[in-house]
Amino acid sequence: MMNADPQELNKFSELAHRWWDPHSEFKPLHEINPLRLDWIEQHVPLQGKRVLDIGCGGGILSESMARQGARVKGIDLSKKALGVADLHSLEAGLHIEYEEIAAEALAAREAGTYDVVTCMEMLEHVPSPASIVAACATLVKPGGHVFFSTLNRKPKAWLLAVVGAEYVLRMLPRGTHDYAKFIRPSELASFARASGLAVRDMRGMTYNPISKRYSINRDTDVNYMVACTRDA
C-alpha cells in the first residue's frame, strides 16, 4: 500500500495553482523558506551537491536549493503540484528534475544516491512517518545529510498551529493539519536512529503575530526542524 492519505493529496492538489502566490494559503511557506534554506546551508553547503526534496509540492524549497548551485530532484505524489513546480522552474530558468513517485519506491531504485535529502512539512501528512524516515536514510549517501521539519504533538502546537493559524489568524485553510498526526521530537529521533541516522541538531521555528515574522530558536514546542547524518 502507498504511504499516502488520499484526502491529504486531494487537499493540496486542489490548491496547486496557488502554490507560487506569496499571498495565498502558501504564504507561510514562502516566508519560512529563506530561514530553513539558511539553516540547511549552515550544516552543508549546497553548491555542487546532489539533493533530493521529498514532498516538494510546488517546488519552493527545491528552487531555492537549485539557486544555491545544487543539482535538485523533487518528488511528490500530487501530479498537479508537480506540474506547477515543473512549469515554474522552466520559467525561472532552473534545471530541476521532478517525478511523481513515493519516497519508498525511489529508495528501492536509487539507494545511496544523494548527498542531501530534505523532507519538510510532510511527515505530519502521511500514515507512516517512520517509513518516510527510513526511505530518506536509504536514499542518502553514507556520511550524507538528511533534514526534516514537522509539528510537535503538544497542546501548545494544537493551540497555535491549528486554532491560531487556521481559525483565528486564518493563515492556513481550516483542516490543513490533523493534530493526531503531529510528531514529538523524541518520536522523530527514534525513527531516525532506527533507520541508521544520527541526530545532529534540532531547532524550533516560531511566529510572532505582532511583528509577523518567523525566527529559528530553541523552542521546539510547535514547529521544529531536525538535522541528521547517515553513518559512513
UniProtKB/TrEMBL annotation:
Amino acids binding S-adenosyl-L-methionine: R36, G55, D76, M120
Catalytic activity: a 3-demethylubiquinol + S-adenosyl-L-methionine = a ubiquinol + S-adenosyl-L-homocysteine + H(+); a 3-(all-trans-polyprenyl)benzene-1,2-diol + S-adenosyl-L-methionine = a 2-methoxy-6-(all-trans-polyprenyl)phenol + S-adenosyl-L-homocysteine + H(+)
Domain of life where this protein originates: Bacteria
One term of GO molecular function: 3-demethylubiquinol 3-O-methyltransferase activity
Pathway: Cofactor biosynthesis; ubiquinone biosynthesis
GO biological process: methylation
Pfam families the UniProt entry points to: Methyltransf_23
Bilayer-spanning residue ranges: none
EC number per UniProt: 2.1.1.222, 2.1.1.64
The entry's keywords: Methyltransferase, S-adenosyl-L-methionine, Transferase, Ubiquinone biosynthesis
Family annotation (SUPFAM superfamilies): S-adenosyl-L-methionine-dependent methyltransferases
Enzyme class per UniProt: transferase
Described purpose of this protein according to its UniProt entry: O-methyltransferase that catalyzes the 2 O-methylation steps in the ubiquinone biosynthetic pathway.
Assigned protein family: Belongs to the methyltransferase superfamily. UbiG/COQ3 family.
The protein's name: Ubiquinone biosynthesis O-methyltransferase
Naturally occurring in which organism (per UniProt): Pandoraea faecigallinarum
